[in-house]
Amino acid sequence: MRTVTEAKAGDNDFGRLSEPFRRELLAYCYRMLGSVDEAEEVVQDVYLDAWRAYNAFEGRSSLRTWLYRIATRACFKALEKSRRRPLPADLGAPQTDLDAALGPQAREVPWLQPMPDFLFTAAPADPATVVVERQTMRLALVGALQQLPPRQRAVLILRDVLQWRSAEVAQLLEMTTAAVNSALQRARAQVPLSQDELTEPAEPRQRALLDRYVTAFETADVDQLVAVLTEDARWEMPPIVTWFEGRDTILAFLAKQMRVIGPTALVPASANGQPAFAVYARGRDGAHRPHALHVLTLTTEGACRIVAFHGSGLFPLFGL
């Protein structure tokens, strides 16, 4: 049994050695669970469990691997009692009848959550690392991962996102290397990571697109959006199940909505390595109140997907 001095020394060692892995573990758990709230809760429990067990840690693997093992088991346990987290496009076909009423707000659905960039990015020495992290956190990719069974999900993330070797994944998941490779092949067939390797516009073009987007919403001028959206763009509005596809359809829908909502104020944010805006609607009293959080996917042709998370629930998470 440790003495008080040894216990304090061990506690200090654990905190110093484990803290650098907190952000990447949070990103890993978020990819697994599709929820920032659940990921933060799991990581908190992981660190508590690891701290309690640190005295028994024999160093047969690295501390990082040990923490990932605890985190993976915690994610598997969390996924046993939770449903997959979709976006509206995962639940049905796009709406084509603009005269039809919007679908209900399905608040009972555990929707995929966006993640603020400041929770998973740090100030690494190598700027290329940031690019990799941001690309592998994209909202579309995290949503696609939710379609996989938990074990395939973990294998795909560990192998193709985090670049672990098959033998390392096999040891962590207590599988054979052959089983890992088989699970990886099945996961890749369903979620090819190359599907999210889009080419973003250069900085001047991106700035111009985002400026037009802000102007369009702040002045309720839908014509400004013509130069922003791609022809095959998607517009989603969780927790509303209805979604739209195609620039002309989206513009027609927004023309009606902007007349109802009126002028707004947009505050820039960043989620999942993508540009985002907090949208505040102005009430009759002149005060601006939280309306939605828009997360944009940009390509060289324009914005190909906008997920407008309606309501104020995400604003505190983003420090808004």
From TrEMBL:
Iron recorded as keyword: no
Residues annotated as domain RNA polymerase sigma-70 region: 19-85
Pfam family, one: SnoaL_2
Stretches assigned to the RNA polymerase sigma factor 70 region 4 type domain: 139-190
Keyword NADP attributed: no
CDD domains hit by this protein: Sigma70_r4
Residues spanning the signal sequence: none
Residue ranges of every copy of the SnoaL-like domain listed in the record: 211-280
Sorted UniProt keywords: DNA-binding, Sigma factor, Transcription, Transcription regulation
InterPro entries: NTF2-like_dom_sf, RNA_pol_sigma-70-like, RNA_pol_sigma-70_dom, RNA_pol_sigma-G_actinobac, RNA_pol_sigma70_ECF_CS, RNA_pol_sigma70_r2, RNA_pol_sigma70_r4_t2, RNA_pol_sigma_r2
Family, per entry: Belongs to the sigma-70 factor family. ECF subfamily.
Subunit relationships: Interacts transiently with the RNA polymerase catalytic core formed by RpoA, RpoB, RpoC and RpoZ (2 alpha, 1 beta, 1 beta' and 1 omega subunit) to form the RNA polymerase holoenzyme that can initiate transcription.
Name this polypeptide is given: RNA polymerase sigma factor
Lineage: Bacteria, Bacillati, Actinomycetota, Actinomycetes, Streptosporangiales
